[in-house]
Amino acid sequence: MAPARVTSFLGPKLREARKARSLSLAALAQQAGVEPAVAHAAEDGLGPVDAYFLLAETVAIKVGARSLPRGKTLGDRLR
Q1: Which of 15, 24, 34, 59 could form a disulfide with 38 if both were Cys (CB 3.0 to 4.6 A apart)?
Q2: Sign of dihedral through CA atoms 10, 12, 13, 19?
Q3: Would you tell me how many other CB atoms lie within 10 Å of the CB of residue 64?
Q4: What is the CA radius of gyration of the chain?
Q5: Handedness of CA 42, 48, 52, 54 (dihedral sign)
Q6: Is the pLDDT reported for residue 51 higher than 80?
Q7: Are 63 and 54 within 8 A, CB to CB?
Q8: pLDDT, position 1
Q9: Cβ atoms within 10 Å of 67's Cβ, excluding its own
Q10: Would you say 74 and 10 are in contact if contact means Cβ atoms under 8 Å apart?
Q11: What is the 3-state secondary structure (H, E, C) of the chain?
């Protein structure tokens, strides 16, 4: 599972990107190759991090250090 702080921070970004592309949750899930329940959980900041990355790639979100919550160190940002 992904650290809760990271996925809860990135989940809304995933939802925003999906809606900007006029994709339904089911369509996003199908394109990413995951179950709709997994896509829903990712948008809510829950679920496995590998599914989040598949979904993010599908809507062209680049996930890197700059997209993480603020913190002095990378470890702080991942907590």
Answers
A1: 34
A2: positive
A3: 6
A4: 12
A5: negative
A6: yes
A7: no
A8: 39
A9: 14
A10: no
A11: CCCHHHHHHHHHHHHHHHHHCCCCHHHHHHHHCCCHHHHHHHHCCCCCHHHHHHHHHHCCCCCCHHHCCCCCCHHHHHC
* Residues 5-50 pLDDT 10s: 445 667 888 999 999 999 999 999 999 999 999 999 989 888 787 8
Identify which has the larger pLDDT, 25 or 51.
Answer: 25
Return the residue matching tokens 């650290």. Answer: 3
Q: By the 8 A CB rule, do 59 and 14 touch?
A: yes
Q: Judging by beta carbons within 10 Å of its beta carbon (0-12, 13-18, 19+), is residue 9 exposed, middle or buried?
A: middle
Question: Mean pLDDT, to the nearest integer, of 59-70?
Answer: 65
Q: Residue written as tokens 């329940």?
A: 37
